[in-house]
Amino acid sequence: MENELFQTIKEQGAKLDAIWKSVEKTRKYFLVIIWVTVILFVLPLAGLVFIIPQFLDVYLGSFNGLL
User: What domain range is 47 assigned to?
Assistant: First the structure.
């Protein structure tokens, strides 16, 4: 009976290690997804905040002499 208990505890420890490894892989995957989202969406969006006013200034400035 005591050997069965130790065997069960060892099996549970092995399963916990496997679960931990899986959780760490998932955590790293989500971290990569967050960084890719920031790089591909948020940074260009922030860049547009500075580029659109400058573009409009140049574009509307070309009509200044016509009006």
Answer: 18-58
